[in-house]
Amino acid sequence: MKIDPDNKADLSAQIAEAIREEIMAGRLIVDERLPSEAELADHFEVSRPTVREALKRLAAQSLIRTARGAFGGAFVNRLSYPEAYGQHITTSTLLLSMNAISFDVACEARYALERACTPLAAARRTPDTLATMRAEIHRQGQPGLTDESFCASDVTFHRALVDSADNPVLSYQLAGAVEAMQPLMNMITFTARSREAIVGFHTRIADALERHEADAAQAALSELEAYTLTLGRDVMAARARPRQPA
Amino acid sequence: MKIDPDNKADLSAQIAEAIREEIMAGRLIVDERLPSEAELADHFEVSRPTVREALKRLAAQSLIRTARGAFGGAFVNRLSYPEAYGQHITTSTLLLSMNAISFDVACEARYALERACTPLAAARRTPDTLATMRAEIHRQGQPGLTDESFCASDVTFHRALVDSADNPVLSYQLAGAVEAMQPLMNMITFTARSREAIVGFHTRIADALERHEADAAQAALSELEAYTLTLGRDVMAARARPRQPA
DNA sequence: GCGTTTAAATTGTCAGACATTTAAATGTAA
DNA sequence: TTACATTTAAATGTCTGACAATTTAAACGC
Fold first, then answer.
1. Degrees (nearest 5) of the Cα angle B130, B87, A32?
2. Contact criterion met (CB < 8 Å) for B30 and A87
3. Among B66, B10, B4, B17, CA closest to A52
4. Is the Cβ–Cβ distance between B118 and B217 less than 8 Å?
5. I want to staple A93 with a disulfide (CB 3.0 to 4.6 A). Which of A180, B13, B32, B117 is the partner?
6. B200: Cα separation from own chain's centroid
7. Distance between CA atoms of residues A43 and B62, nearest Å
8. Which residue's CA shows the smallest distance to C1' of C23?
9. Which residues from chain A sit within 8 angstroms of residue B96, using beta carbons?
10. pLDDT grade, residue A244 (50/70/90)?
11. Which of A153, A151, A173 is nearest to A163 (CA)?
12. Most distant pair of Cα atoms in chain B: their distance
């Protein structure tokens, strides 16, 4: 962890990058203490505020954590699942909202990923995850439910489906895809009729998983995807021409 | 963007969080200019260094970018695909390397996700992506190839497979899974025999995609997964008992 | 031997200053 | 008038020095 040539980029960015590389390469290991801010400032020949800005960059990526007091300092942080989930969801949500991703493309990606979990979920679903899915299906049938609550319940249902695969890496990867879709899903207005249809698909999925029938679950998911797509397209079309049709 | 109660957390973290929420909620839109550091310091009633630390946190997540000079400042950044890829790969790699994820679990997740792309890839593969896959297969057959180059070529092959699906959201999601596996894959020593087998699987996949046969491609992927798993388990077992067997 | 106090180390925050960069405004000459 | 050079202003980047808050360990007293 040495070098800062006569680069013209921000010093704090260079220092953060140098430390990140040490961590990524495993030369700084989990829970290891970094030198104090004063020592880092001396080492890199910069001032303490510059070092602090670099450390804050690393902290924002959950690469380090800091503690005050004697024997405090900056420590290499073990990236936990919740932290990784949060980072992934933030990034995915922004990517979708800022880049004019079409509803079709996002929808296709989401359901393709969910179908990937289905064989594992059908093999490993537990009474617990099934119960979660059944409870959300029941909630989705309640007439007084707001659109926001319906969407939130939809997310919970699909997360239970993903978690049924019992693979934390898969759950982590899928979390971004499912959660990031929510703002797009919220744009769809759910009528009573469309809610009824969605509840029907969810029921078919839960039934198929309960019977360990992966193919049936995938088929239901594919039909749900097609249905969601038509709902999305109708909304988009209605927005494109506000009040034109005779 | 208002409040910082008598919270005891770092002021710079609170300020960064407040601004991030504004961006996530869409109240600060892409390319919009934030107030200057001096104005933010005045608004939040903190000093400029504290504001700067908050802004560096946001910059580390690619939420803002800064420009010097007159009419410079901090601007809400449009999260690009390359930036999102980088964030995702960093997070995924650290999650896997720091949490004692078993080879089996990581492998299962990776191939499940790749199989999710296969139907789309079989339908949409182009001469271009097929050519990339063929070229990498050829490279993988060269006898003088180092293990590192073989692994890099393996990543390129699988990325071409994913990109064949022609869905940028899917490519983004998969990038983390494929790239993050590389350090684990690098731990496996490839003998000439195992390389030959892998090249065989890759050829079957490319052939199947060329003929638009999704099922055959998925079958080959599944067999490749099983084979990779046995390779990984052998390596793990050999490490567990260094020199015991009679 | 145990509880209390003190000291030391470290991060968090502040104030003020100067350096550097950038684009607009201004001035000047062809 | 137009083109080019200069000045100016605004903003970020960096530094210095200081003080506050926090936490642990050691010193101290009983």
1. 125
2. no
3. B10
4. yes
5. A180
6. 26
7. 27
8. B70
9. 169
10. low
11. A173
12. 76
CA separation for the pair B8, B183 (Å, rounded): 39
Residue (of A192, A196, A218) closest to A205 by Cα position: A218
Element (H, E) at A66: strand A64-67
Mutation target for A interface from B10, B11, B169: give the one with most A CBs within 10 A.
B169
For the stretch B199-227, pLDDT in tens is 999 999 999 999 999 999 999 999 999 99
Query: Left (φ > 0), alpha (ψ -120 to 50) or beta: where does B203 sit?
Result: alpha
- Going by C-alpha positions, the residue among A64, A60, A61, A59 that lies closest to residue A77 is A64
Query: Which pLDDT score, from 0 to 100, does residue A246 have?
Result: 42
Chain A and chain B share a number of CB contacts under 8 A equal to 159
B chain contacts of residue A92, beta-carbon cutoff 8 Å: 84, 172-173
Is residue A149 within 8 A of residue A136, CB to CB? The reply is no
Asked if B91 has any chain A CB less than 8 Å from its own CB, the reply is yes
Asked if A198 and A140 count as a contact pair (C-beta separation under 8 A), the reply is yes
The pTM of the full predicted model, rounded to 2 decimals, is 0.88
First to last CA, chain A: 70
> pLDDT for A109-131, tens place per residue?
999 999 999 999 999 999 999 99
Query: How far is Cα B92 from Cα B110, in angstroms, rounded to an integer?
Result: 12
The single-letter code of the amino acid at A147 is: D
Query: Quick one: three-class SS letters along A171-233?
Result: HHHHHHHHHHHHHHHHCCCCCHHHHHHHHHHHHHHHHHHHCCCHHHHHHHHHHHHHHHHHHHH
Residue A111 token pair: 């359901």
Contacts of B102 (CB under 8 A, 6+ apart): none
Place of tokens 């890099």: B152
CA distance A164 to A174: 12
pLDDT at A188: 78
Candidates B90, B93, B95: best to mutate against A (most CBs of A within 10 A) is B95
CA A73 → C1' D24, Å? 12
Taking the C-alpha atoms of residue B65 and residue B74, their distance in angstroms, rounded to an integer, is 6
